[in-house]
Each structure stands twice: as C-alpha cells, then as structure tokens.
Design brief:
Layout: E1 6-11, E2 17-23, E3 27-32, H1 44-48, E4 53-58, H2 78-92, E5 97-102, H3 104-115, E6 120-126, H4 139-144, H5 149-156, H6 161-168, H7 176-182, H8 184-187, H9 195-208, H10 210-217, E7 224-229, H11 236-245, E8 250-254, H12 261-264, H13 266-280
Parallel strand pairs: 3-4, 3-5, 5-6, 6-7, 7-8
Antiparallel strand pairs: 1-2, 2-4
Helix pairs in contact: 2-3, 3-10, 5-6
Length: about 280
C-alpha cells in the first residue's frame, strides 16, 4: 500500500467521489495510470525516482479509493473521465496542465487534449495506446506472440482480469526474467474485482469515439513527447500514427525495452527517467 504525502477528495459532475494523491514538490505533473481499471500504485518507482516535481495522481473512477456505485456504459464513458480531469485541473487552479500518462493513461491524456486543447501545457505519452481504434487490432497479438505455453495455459484458466494480466505479464517485457521477477505487482491489487468490467466498458467507448478524437487532435498544437520501449507491444505503428496526426510530436525510443521501462532493467529505467526530465524541462 502506498501512503501519499497528501490525499484529498474531489467530486465529479456526476457525483463520484474521486481520490487524489500527491507526492513531491516542484513543477506539477498530473500522472495517469494505465488500465483502465488499474490501481496507480505500480507507478510508485516513477514518482519516487524524479525529485523536483509535484506528482498529482488521481485514482480514476472505479479504481483505488475512487469507488463508484454503478459501473455501466453511462458512468464509464470517455467524456466522464475527461470531465473528471477538468474538475481536478480547476481544483489545482492550473490554467494549463502537464499530463503524463502510461498506457491507457496516455490514451486518457489524448482524449482530454482532444476536448480541452487550450488546457494543456504538454503531453507525455509513456507507452501509450493510440489515438484511433487501429491500435486494438494488433496490441493483444503483439503480447501473445511473446508468451510461452505455460503462460498461455495460465491465461486460459484465468478467472478475472487480474489473473489474466498475471498470466500474460511476460508479454509486456523484452526481458522475461524481469517480467517473472515483477509479477508480484499484479497480485498486489493492481487490478481489483471491478477492473474487468471497467476495462471493457471504457475501451468500448474509446473505440466508438476514435474518429472524432482524430479530427480534434489534428488541430492540437501543444508539445507532445512519446517515450516508449522499442519492443513495447503497443508497437511502433502506434507511435507513428500519433506523429502523423500530431506532427509536432517528439519520439524517444528506449532500446531492448518493453512496456514498463522502470521495471525492465537498470539501464532502461535510467534512460526512461532521463527522457522524462528532458520532456519536462
């Protein structure tokens, strides 16, 4: 369990109580966890390894301490997530936010930028999924091709999203040994019992809204930085799609690295933190 230096609640437009955690001091950076439906605790090494920044980590609706009584296609719409972020921005009294998002968190950052481009200082996309729905056609295949028979057998018997994620965890890494060594993260409430439902409903809406997001982000003008492992199953196709839609995007690859650079190895982690500092200058 991660204890925040500061923890407080804000309230969404549809009356969901959202918990926000803060760590460090300095330039404010809103850091968005992956999933959707995952606990942000797995990002702890990131905020601990980057002193000089004030990391603001919201528990997204339905995750962590941001419980929600009803989980359906109404409460899990992308627009609801975006409005949650704008409530946070107003609470922080920030005219413009630095949004950094890992995996699904990057997709949420892109969705926010599509609706509120004037509220963005810059975007940091850390192994982010894509802007359009094209990303979904190859992401799971890129994971599956890296798995061994024992992984596939474990996944076949998985009863929920957390168990499935644990089974396919090696598919997110370049180094299998690093994957095996960090599988315990999945077992420490990375994905709770509601995660599967949240994940399905949210991603369905993300796919549905892809066309309008592409149109909006083609007019986006703030800086965008992509930091991604070269062997991330997100794939280089996703990176170059973002660059095509948002031409000012700057791309940084980390060699011999998968989806979670800070867990891959010491070299990948050091390069990852160095690139974040460059992007936040």
């Amino acid at each position: 369990m991660v204890i925040a230096q500061q923890q407080y609640a804000i309230h969404s437009g549809d009356n969901v109580t959202l918990t926000v955690n803060e760590f460090g001091s300095g330039k404010p950076v809103v850091l968005l966890a992956g999933g959707p439906g995952f606990n942000a605790a797995y990002l702890e090494p990131v905020w601990k390894s980057l002193p000089g920044f004030r990391f603001i980590i919201p528990d997204q609706r339905g995750t962590g301490h941001s419980s929600i009584s009803r989980i359906d296609s109404v409460t899990m719409r992308i627009d609801q997530y975006v409005e949650d972020l704008d409530v946070l921005r107003k609470h922080l009294k920030l005219k413009k936010m630095v949004l950094a998002g890992h995996s699904w968190g990057g997709m949420l950052a892109l969705a926010y930028a599509a609706k509120y481009p004037g509220n963005i200082d810059r975007l940091l996309l850390l192994g982010s999924g894509g802007i359009s729905r094209d990303f979904f056609t190859y992401f799971n295949s890129n994971i599956k091709m890296r798995l061994r028979e024992e992984d596939l057998a474990e996944a076949k018997n998985a009863k929920n999203l957390a168990a499935n994620l644990s089974a396919i965890w090696p598919g997110y890494f370049f180094n299998r040994q690093s994957a095996i060594a960090t599988k315990k993260l999945v077992d420490t409430n990375l994905a709770d019992h509601n995660a599967g439902k949240i994940n399905n409903l949210t991603l369905q809406d993300y796919k549905r809204t892809g066309q309008s997001r592409v149109a909006s982000l083609s007019k986006f003008r703030s800086p965008v930085y992509i930091i991604q492992g070269r062997q991330d199953p997100v794939g280089e196709s996703t990176v170059y799609e973002t660059k095509r839609i948002i031409p000012q995007t700057k791309i940084f690859f980390i060699e011999k690295c998968g989806h979670l650079p800070w867990l891959e190895d010491n070299v990948s982690a050091a390069r990852f933190y160095e690139l974040i500092r460059i992007a936040l200058k």
